[in-house]
Amino acid sequence: MKQIEEYEVNPFTMLIKPIAYGSKIYSQIVEVDDEFLSPFKPLDIIRNSCEYYGCDYEGRRNGTRQLVGYAHKIPIAIDPTNRIFFFPTTSPNRQECIWISHEHVEDHDRINPQEALILFKNKQSFKVPVSCTSIITQMERTSYLRTKLMQRIEYNERKAFYLVQRPKPMEASENSFDYGKKR
Question: Which residue of 47, 52, 54, 134 shows the fewest CB atoms closer than 10 Å?
Fold first, then answer.
């Protein structure tokens, strides 16, 4: 695993997992074709990534809360225009919280009542110490958030298109001063 100092979540990021490194918590970052070790905790990477894409983490949390009404284990739209949505496996404030990219998950399977296997689109798989039911719930919540945000983005794009492309008002071919005059 390559050790890096700075990292922003990107469209290739699949998973950010806490890992004990001595007495500290680092992050194992798994991308489609690479893995990294960062000296930052997973939540710090998520926070910094939100800022990198122009919004702070608390703003993203509050926006999600208002948009879809979730209060706990809130999925985060790090960059909706690039379809970068992550969900936490537990409370983000807990050290064992793993962040998973919604875009890269292909399937999930139950290992035992408190453990699930996540299968990614690149055929890699990872065990996570949460129930399969919890993973399903988090996937559904993230899907709902994505749908609501994409509907708003598309609505605003259509609205902007029609404002720019709206038909010009029709005008009479005769001069307006000719109306009502007798000849």
Answer: 54
d(CA 97, CA 57): 16
Amino acid in the structure at residue 8 = E
Residue 95, domain member (yes or no):
yes
User: Per the domain annotation, does 21 fall within a domain?
Assistant: yes
Residue 102 sits in which domain range? 2-164
Tell whether 174 is covered by a domain.
no
pLDDT at residue 176 greater than cutoff 90: no
> Does some domain include residue 175?
no
Number of domains in the chain: 1
Q: How far apart are CA 183 and CA 176, in angstroms?
A: 15
Q: Is the dihedral of CA 15, 67, 156, 143 positive or negative?
A: positive
pTM: 0.84
Kind plus residue range of the DSSP H or E element containing 16: strand 13-21
Measured between alpha carbons, how far is residue 1 from residues 29, 76, 96 in Å? 9, 26, 20
What pLDDT does residue 20 have?
Answer: 94
Average pLDDT over residues 112-140: 97
